[in-house]
Amino acid sequence: MNFSVSDIIPQSFRRRGIWVVVTIFMRAILNFVGLAMLLPVLLLILDTDSVSTNPYLNRLYVLSGIPDEKWFIAAVCVAVIAVIALKCLINLLLYRAERDYTYSLYGYLSRRLYIDYHNRGLQFIKSSNSAVLSRNVNAICLTFVAGILRPAATIISETTLFLLLFVALAFYDITAAVLVIAIFLPSIWLYIRMVKGRLNDYGEAENRAQRAKARNVADTYRGYSDIEISNAFPQMLERFDRTMEEVIKMRARNATISILPQMFTEIGLAVGMAVMVIINLGIEGNRMKILFGVFAVAALRLMPSVRNIMSAWSSLRYNGFTIPIIRDARIDETDTAVEISDERFDFRKEIATEGLTFRFDDGSAPVLRNLSIKIAKGERLGIRGRSGSGKTTLFNLLLGLYEPTEGAIYIDGERLSAENRRKWQNTIGYVSQNIFLTDGTIIDNIALGVRPDKIDRASADKAIDMADLRAFTDSLPNGADTRVGECGSRLSGGQRQRIGIARALYKQADILFFDEATSSLDNATERNINEAIEELSQSNKDLTIVIIAHRDSSLDWCDRIIDIDDYE
Predict the structure, then answer these.
(1) 414 by DSSP, 3-state: which?
(2) Which residues, other chains included, contact 257 with Cβ-Cβ below 8 Å and sequence gap of 6+?
(3) Quick one: which of 46, 42, 52 has its CA closest to 77?
């Protein structure tokens, strides 16, 4: 797997990343200084005469001007404590810079991924799984910064400290330095050889299981009624258990691997100390004690460093699956400017399609082929056709949700394009068969996309009256401020459709598109909704209405009806 992330990190974060790398090296140097500060204390413990015998301590003692050795030793201890405390404080400040960088990057990447998936359009959304996309946006970016970038920083910091300690130890005693290398480097090499391939496989296997689990949970709650009536929950639970078992198995294996670094380093430390004792058997006096003490301090500090390096490398391998997911989002190419505009088309004449052809990205046969129609302003146009003939696809093209494979759509002679799509969509209203409702209030859903404090209550009340919702809202304790539940679960089908109509009316759309908006309703409710639509048309002759209906009777009031089957 390619662990290069330079193409994932945005340009602005790359510049900040240089400073973060500097802080990582600075922290490693500070950790080295903190360890070096312990050496005078170690010498004073192992050799009580070191103030006189050690040239460095003796010179410091003379320069200090302290007349008594005991006071000098106390002063050295206080100074060591002060320096280490200062080192820890500076280390904390430097770590905050790293922390802020990684979590800022997490927020940036997650937002970019969210925008990128949105910008890919309806065809991409329909061909993907919403639960998987949600998990990518919410979890994958966090896993990337916590499981890839932070371990990479750990490897850089701990490797730098390792090298600094090795160089310092080599200056003091080359035998001890070589022994450190001989102990810890083989441990790292052996660990990598043992687990390298497994960690990639475990990480990817867990990701697949997590995605399947997310899909299963989302499907269970989204299709609760059908699942319950069909007694399908045991099967859904079986799938859940199967994927959860896979997740637990992969996590358990990774947890087992994660304790190996500690075992390797502890065994290596024990071997190193034993070898050091054997090497120094012939050395008399304090020389052996000091050498052994220096080696022990260095090895004990290197042991967590080596362990951290191995654990960080494991995290890189295990979480490597996040890299292609984020890379696929083309983060640097994503336009983060979300268009906020209330500009509208001054619709005066007609909508026209010329040679409109559309096929999905999977290379299947065209759904629509060479379709040319005109819809005049104020016209009430009905569209019918057999199931699968492309009626909804035509709507998605007219709504600007799909881009034509061939041909074009014109509004008063101006071609519909990505540049004016927002302007066109501000002009139209859309009522689908399955009205989208947020888990908010009725009025929030009528004024969808408008901040609650910016809602025009008078316009909303007018839309409620025109959509024949007044009797319903007046019957509720909180009126139009009553919450509708997830996906409008507290509402009937007719009430949801009327909210959809009220939404289009609140928007004061010039063109209304109804995509089989009454197909899931009972006859009486369908008749009432159709009558409401017809009354809207009668009261506003300039309002253009395009409607798809599954029953010809629902199109009786239209000025013109086209059969899309005739255009194949």
Answers:
(1) strand
(2) 195, 198, 199, 314
(3) 42
> What whole-number distance in Å separates Cα of residue 247 and Cα of residue 249?
5
CA separation, residue 50 to residues 39, 53, 290 (Å): 12, 5, 10
Domains and CATH numbers, the chain: 11-333 (1.20.1560.10), 350-567 (3.40.50.300)
Continuous H helices in 280-333:
286-318, 322-328
Q: What is the pLDDT of residue 265?
A: 65
Distance of alpha carbon 480 from the chain centroid: 35
Sequence-separated (6 or more) residues with CB below 8 Å from residue 204: 321
User: How much of the chain is in helix, strand and coil states, percent to nearest 5?
Assistant: 65, 10, 25
From CA 376, how far away is CA 391, in angstroms rounded? 19
How far is C-alpha 456 from the geometric centre of its chain's CA atoms? 34
Please, how many CA atoms are within 13 Å of residue 277, restricted to the half-sphere of its CB? 6
Cα separation, 481 vs 442, whole angstroms: 6
Q: What is the pTM of this model?
A: 0.72
Q: If DSSP codes are grouped into helix, strand and coil, which group holds residue 420?
A: coil
Tell me the three state secondary structure of residue 314: helix
What are 205-249's pLDDT values in tens digits?
A: 888 888 888 878 777 766 665 566 556 777 778 888 888 888 888
Give the number of other CB atoms < 10 A from CB of residue 282. Answer: 7
**Which of 140, 197, 153, 111 is CA-nearest to residue 319?**
140
Tell me the Ramachandran region of residue 208: left when phi exceeds 0, alpha when psi lies from -120 to 50, beta otherwise.
alpha
Strand (E) positions, 129-217?
none
Residue-wise pLDDT for 89-110, tens only, equals 888 888 888 888 888 888 888 8
> How many CA within 13 A on the CB side of residue 146?
6
If you count them, how many residues does the chain have? 568
Cβ contact 515:430 at 8 Å: yes
Percent of the chain with pLDDT over 90: 1
Structure tokens at 385: 């056709």
- Do strands 406-411 and 414-415 pair parallel, antiparallel, or not at all (unpaired)? antiparallel
The residue type at 366: P
Residues 6+ apart with CB under 8 A from 43: 50, 54, 57, 290
Give residue 516's region: left, alpha or beta (phi > 0; psi -120 to 50). Answer: left
C-alpha 88: how far from chain center: 33
Q: Under 8 Å CB-to-CB from 166, ≥6 apart: which residues?
A: 177, 180, 181
Task: Please list, in sequence order, all residues whose beta carbon lies within 8 angstroms of the beta carbon of residue 153, skipping any fewer than 6 positions away.
Answer: 20, 24, 98, 102
